[in-house]
Write a structure and sequence with these properties.
- The protein is α/β, with parallel strands linked by helices.
- Helices cover about 40% and strands about 20% of the residues.
- The protein has a seven-stranded mixed β-sheet with strand order 3-2-1-4-5-6-7, with helices on one face.
- The longest helix is centred in the last third of the chain and has 25 residues.
- It binds 5-O-phosphono-beta-D-ribofuranosylamine (GRF).
Length: about 190
């Protein structure tokens, strides 16, 4: 049976695009649709390029039953958060246990939690003087960045790195690993 993915993304969508591209000619896995809460988000153009349907839902629709009903109807095997900035309501986690995953641009449990997204994370890493950072792919539970860790990958840093170069290094790691990790999860 073909496995089905739904991607949730709030922004640029470069990870979403990598995932869509990775599975484009797969008979085993299909990206059913992309959901975003952000009008005009870059992810819409990226989905369109691959003819993957995309849907805009207002923030409120995540709190009411609207998005949940949409998901329940499509019955995805995996819901992938790829730069999705709203908190996932508890009901989603209860309806889709171990079927929602997120990618975080640091080595959790470091640099996670509320407010730790995008450049905030890379600035905090820079300020700490850490000599490495990385990515974490984890299951989603009702607390930000606290679900069980599925995969981590590291990249070295040095004093010349800036939050911007850290972001570039982290994005490269994300693009390299995220589609493959999804593939592994769906194989099980
Ligand atoms: C990624 O760094 C991801 O870890 C974080 O949000 C960013 C999304 O980037 N959760 P993009 O929109 O996929 O380019």
């Amino acid at each position: 049976m073909q496995k089905k993915i739904i991607i949730l993304a709030s922004g640029n969508g470069s990870n979403a695009e990598k995932i869509i591209d990775f599975f484009e000619s797969s008979s085993a896995v299909k990206v059913l649709s992309v959901i975003s809460n952000k009008q005009g988000a870059g992810v819409f153009e990226r989905a369109k390029k691959f003819e993957v349907p995309s849907v805009l839902f207002k923030k409120k629709s995540f709190e009411t039953n609207e998005v949940l009903s949409y998901l329940e109807e499509l019955k995805p095997d995996l819901i992938v958060l790829a730069g999705f900035l709203l908190k996932i309501p508890k009901e989603f986690v209860l309806k889709f246990p171990n079927k929602i995953i997120n990618i975080h641009p640091a080595l959790l449990p470091k640099y996670g939690g509320k407010g730790m997204y995008g450049s905030n994370v890379h600035k905090a890493v820079k300020e700490s003087g850490d000599l490495k950072t990385g990515i974490t792919i984890h299951y989603v539970n009702e607390n930000y960045d606290e679900g069980a860790i599925i995969f981590q990958a590291e990249v070295g840093l040095d004093a010349s790195d800036t939050p911007e170069t850290i972001a570039t290094k982290v994005h490269a790691l994300e693009h390299q690993h995220f589609p493959q990790v999804i593939h592994q999860i769906l194989r099980k």
